[in-house]
Amino acid sequence: MSRIKPCPECGIPQRITKHNTWLPNGTILEDNNPEHRVVFIENDALRDTYLGVEKMLGVPIDNIITESQRRSTYESVDNALPGFLKPILRWTGTRPITRYLIDQAKLDGKGAVELVSFRRRKRKEDYIKLRIREPFSLPLFCGNFAGAMEAVDGREISITWEETAPHEYELTAHISTHDVELKERLKRRPARYKPGDTKLHRCEVCGVPAIMSRYAWRLDRGIIENKTTGRRMIIISTATQDAIMDELVKELGETIAQAVVDAQRKLIASGFFSREEIKEADDLRLEFAYRGLGNLVEIDFDHDHLFMRLENPCLNEMVAGLAQGLYEQASQRKSRLDWEIVENGDLVVNARSRE
Ligand SMILES: [Zn+2]
Hints:
The strands form 3 sheets. This protein has a 6-stranded antiparallel β-sheet. It is an alpha+beta fold. Helices cover 38% and strands 26% of the residues. The protein has a domain at 255-355: Muramoyl-pentapeptide Carboxypeptidase, domain 2 (2-Layer Sandwich). The longest helix is centred in the N-terminal third of the chain and has 19 residues, at 62-80. The chain has 10 helices and 14 strands. Zinc ion (ZN) binds at residues 7, 9-10, 12, 17, 203, 205-206, 208.
């Protein structure tokens, strides 16, 4: 645990401040790589999105979530591993790869993970068992675990889990004797971002937005929380969320997009953000920017409408629902929503009063 040191000024773990860059264009990039965009968002927003979709469909979508996450993690770990290292890790990599999963979960707020036991002898009945407490999302973590192990081990993996105590689960990765089949690569959206000039007041020591000191990293629990409200936050890849959304739409149809919008609208309209957090347009710009949700370049808000234009948008359905929810919360009215990605790539959202 002591290996993860906080910034002496703002208290954010140095591993976060070194590896993530908050750009003035409303994006957060991991290792300054445009393909590795992340967002820093409320875990409830993610949870309610999936719950909303399940409710609409009346069936669980855990498998789709796990599969998309597995492919996404497989590709990023496979890309990150230097070629010469792969044959070595195939035999010896259990501890390094579980260490990677444990640290990643701890830093990104995904839960407290530990290695329970393993057997990797390149035979039948090989397995790795992990324990996770307070997981941010069990299906997403199962996908993370399976994808990372497959990239390192090269054999197909299936995951089973059981609840061993409240909020505590034991996950077993069963390693098959079959090699991982090469699947079609996930379609990634091209990472071209517009420049921006959002003024973020920054920590003088590490350079992350100073507002991030609102949040505490409880590293022993793998939890990031808002110091005032206790609300749980997570850092997740936008590419993975896009992949899950694409997969859901492909499997289940376009109505999924509406279910995601509605889930966010309901969450936000129920008073998710306090009036203290969002008093005026500049506050909202900042809230979008440090979460990495994009650069809010236009906002027009009145009792009968809310219009927004966001450069470098991501998680479009969620953000459209968020905007609608903000309007409904502030105006106490029901609304009609139009949103689209316009030709230049911006997200344009328009919520209008129905009353
Ligand atoms: Zn700092």
